Amino acid sequence: MTEQIQSSIGINDIKGEMAKLLSGVKKGTSSFPVDAFPLPIQQIIQNTNESLDFPVDFIASSLLFASSVAIGNTHMVELKKGFQQSAVIYLAIVARAGTNKSHPLSFAIQPIEARDKQSYRVYEQKKLDYETAINLSKKERHEQAIDEPVKPVWVKFLLSDSTPEALAEIHKFNKRGIGVYVDELAGWFKNFNRYNKGSEMEFWLSAWSAKPINIDRKTGDPVFIPLPYISVAGTIQNGVLHELARESRTQNGFIDRILFVLPDNIQKPYWSEKELDQTVIDNWNFILSKLLDLSCRLDETSTPKPQILYFSPEAKQILFDWQKYNADLCNNADNDMLSGMYSKMEMYAIRFSLIIEMLNFACLEGNKQCISVKSVKSAIKLTEYFRKSALKAFSIISNVNPLDKYSEEKQKLYNTLPVTFTTEQGNQIALHIGIAERTFKRFLNEPDLFKRIRLGEYEKLV
After folding, report:
1. Euclidean distance between CA atoms 452 and 439, whole angstroms
2. CA dihedral over 29, 32, 36, 38, signed as positive or negative
3. ∠ CA 94-99-100 to the nearest 5 degrees?
4. Is the dihedral of CA 441, 443, 445, 450 positive or negative?
5. Which residue, 6, 31, 5, is CA-closest to 20?
6. Could you tell me if 351 and 415 lie in one domain?
7. Which residues, in sequence order, are CB contacts of 259 under 8 Å at separation 6+?
8. 189 shares a domain with 105
9. Is 387:447 a contact under the CB 8 Å cutoff?
10. Whole-angstrom distance, CA of residue 434 vs CA of residue 158
11. Could you tell me if residue 234 is inside a domain?
12. How many domains does the chain have?
């Protein structure tokens, strides 16, 4: 594996770096902060993009999801006593049909699917043995030294859409954690509360927060999951994104928990004639296997007992400084939907710190003794990317343009500004329109409209 890569975020300029989202996005390029990942994963992203035409945003986020599933309940991160987070994520890849949304997810979860196939073969053999034993009399079993047969179960990692009851039953046997992969999230959302009104939504809200899940069933025994771990990923088309806003999902906090992948200028690519090198597949198998091979400890009640990782003092300080910036965004948000989303970004910053630290370990670039400065810097980059995507998604969902609340004069200024511009360039355009320099500079502080790339340079968000 490769040497550790150096992060570009400066410790002493945290607030300014919070606005860095890789400037100057051009048609066909990506703003995803690929350098947030260890170098071996960056290379996987680049190679699959060049050979398999995977959009960078889609494959990068898919690898993030697969990593989350692989970590499971083996590790958690503690920011301070009583404040722990797992690596659970809810992910939605958004794009038009035919833009290669599903294939990156399929590629990312292949090593996990291989584990499920292997465990299913074991299950099939155990089931045959069980059926053979159950058909014997007690005397015959005694004579053949066969213990009382126990019905086997298939312990698996991945599943597609299912009811909370069925999902909890599967989770009961895989305490480490599971991943839900839904090819079309719109259908998944429509099926919410198909049997018990309100219960399915509450299930997913609780699962994201790792709150105990208790399901009483009319038939069969009750199911209790004391420490749930369920990550979710799927795809959805832009045109049906509004489905997410139905049934009060924008009010109950469910939408706030979703990481949207909504890149600009995604188009159906031409086929690439370049073949994917087998070493790329082998490297991803190696990395994910390092995580899948980690043991999940259980306590005396058979409840998962994750290994706790703590932040180094320097890493913790960086995260606390960033949180102040994020808290200001929450407090100054124009509506509860934005405030809720900003608030959940704090949880994701902590979760990303854990995921990146574990990936550094899997790539042989770290020893997972603590959450490092490098991991926190990378986590902040990821969080800011997903914040930007959430703003775009929320604009579509609510059908509200952030510009609508501003005067025609400011709307004209905004529409005239290039995607990226310097303060001086923007001021010249503002003066030409008739807007004073002081008014223009105040306008630049609107977080829904602008991101500061670096000192004196900005990027438009709408």
Report:
1. 17
2. negative
3. 90
4. negative
5. 31
6. no
7. 61, 89, 90, 91, 92, 348, 386, 389, 390
8. yes
9. no
10. 58
11. yes
12. 2
* 422 and 303 share one domain: no
406 CB neighbour count, 10 Å cutoff: 16
Q: Are 244 and 103 in contact (CB under 8 A)?
A: no
Assigned token pair, 94: 């958004």
User: Which domain does 410 fall in, by range?
Assistant: 404-460
d(CA 315, CA 313): 6
Asked if residue 27 belongs to a domain, the reply is no
- Write down the pTM of the prediction: 0.79
Q: Are residues 12 and 149 in the same domain?
A: yes
Contact 437, 430 (CB under 8 A): yes
End position of a domain, from candidates 350, 378, 400: 400
pLDDT of residue 14: 34
* Domain of residue 89, CATH code: 3.40.50
Instruction: Give the Cα separation of 342 and 394 in Å (integer).
Output: 12
On whether both 381 and 443 belong to a single domain, the answer is no
Residue 30 lies in a domain: no
Please check whether residue 64 is in contact with residue 231, taking contact to mean a CB–CB distance below 8 angstroms.
no
pLDDT tens figures, 194-206: 555 557 888 888 8
Tokens of 140: 């015959």
417 DSSP assignment? S
pLDDT tens per residue, range 74-133:
999 999 999 999 999 999 999 888 888 899 999 999 999 999 999 999 999 999 989 988
User: What pLDDT sits at residue 196?
Assistant: 55
Q: What share of the chain is helix, strand, coil (3-state, %, to 5)?
A: 50, 15, 35
Task: Give the tens place of pLDDT for each residue, 291-301.
Answer: 999 999 999 99
Q: Say if residue 387 is in the same domain as residue 424.
A: no
Instruction: Say if residue 12's pLDDT is above 60.
Output: no
Tell me how far apart the terminal alpha carbons of the chain are, to the nearest angstrom.
40
Is-contact 440 413, C-beta < 8 A?
A: yes
Task: Check: CB of residue 192 under 8 Å from CB of residue 30.
Answer: no
